[in-house]
Amino acid sequence: MNASIDAFLDYLSVERGLARNTILAYKDDLEGFEEFLRGAAIESVFKTTKNEVINFMLAEKDHGISPNSIARRLAAIRMFFRFLVRERMIKNDPTVLIDSPKLWKKIPDTLSLAEVEALLAQPSLRTPQGIRDKAILETMYATGMRVSEAVHLKLDGINLEVGFLRCIGKGNKERIIPLGKKAIASLQRYLTVSRPKFLKQKTSDALFVSRLGQRISRQSLWKLIKMYARQARIKKAIKPHILRHSFATHLLEYGADLRSVQEMLGHANIATTQIYTHINKDRLKTIHRMYHPRP
């Protein structure tokens, strides 16, 4: 393999005219791959298959190497095998059908519908704070907003008669999101009972305010989500966007089209929204394994 790598590096230098540092980076990446192949008892680069390349990438990931770094190493390996094919040293390129690790995405955690119902049932409607918290949770699940977006909602940005709210998302982009009946009812109760008590004689353009009459902070909102999740005895790891992820997943499970979900989430690229289709597929596979007579 050393001779093949040397020939490839000469090609990069003489024919491609790449900078010395770039060539050294390719050299380091390919020597790391060569070391992996030796450890896997692969004696010749000509015997490398797609599985060895994938196993190398997974081993790098297990060692804590970032997807971007692994993608760079894959690019070096891919160019190396293209060179070998071009020089007719091998017939087939084992990297042809391998996706870049930059495409690897961690599927987000979501709550089941029963877990969402349990979470939303926790705030007490006997206290002004509980009424406010109920309105916050119902609004977040009804709209799929980010925590940061929810705390920056303005009073004049909601229209309960029409059933929509105006949200300012990333990049200061505005989007209009519909509200469900339960969220509207919770917001009406909050605006009638709790918000005037919190504000007393003060005025504020913020929709959700604290007991001191100030805009509720992102940290406070995040803490109340975790608190109510504990009260609901939800065992899953609770993260700030879990209601957002659950909103998108449940919409797709019940038949919503991807473009509409993309618009409500405020995703610039539909590829970001597509990750929720993987969650749905995983759920279908689980159901199939559980109930099919020949799983």
List the helices and strands and how they pair.
Layout: H1 2-14, H2 20-39, H3 50-62, H4 67-86, H5 113-120, H6 128-143, H7 147-151, E1 158-159, E2 164-168, E3 174-178, H8 181-199, H9 218-231, H10 242-253, H11 258-265, H12 270-273, H13 275-291
Helix pairs in contact: 1-2, 2-4, 3-4, 6-8, 6-10, 10-13
Tell me what you see in this structure.
This protein is mostly helical and 295 residues long. The chain has two domains: 2-103, DNA polymerase, domain 1; 113-291, hpI Integrase, Chain A (Orthogonal Bundle), CATH 1.10.443.10. The chain has 13 helices and three strands. It has helices at 2-14, 20-39, 50-62, 67-86, 113-120, 128-143, 147-151, 181-199, 218-231, 242-253, 258-265, 270-273, 275-291, and strands at residues 158-159, 164-168, 174-178. The protein has a three-stranded antiparallel β-sheet, with no helix packed on it. β1 and β2 (164-168) form a beta hairpin. α6 packs antiparallel against α8 and α6 (128-143) packs across α10. The longest helix has 20 residues, at 20-39. The model has no long low-confidence stretch (mean pLDDT 89).
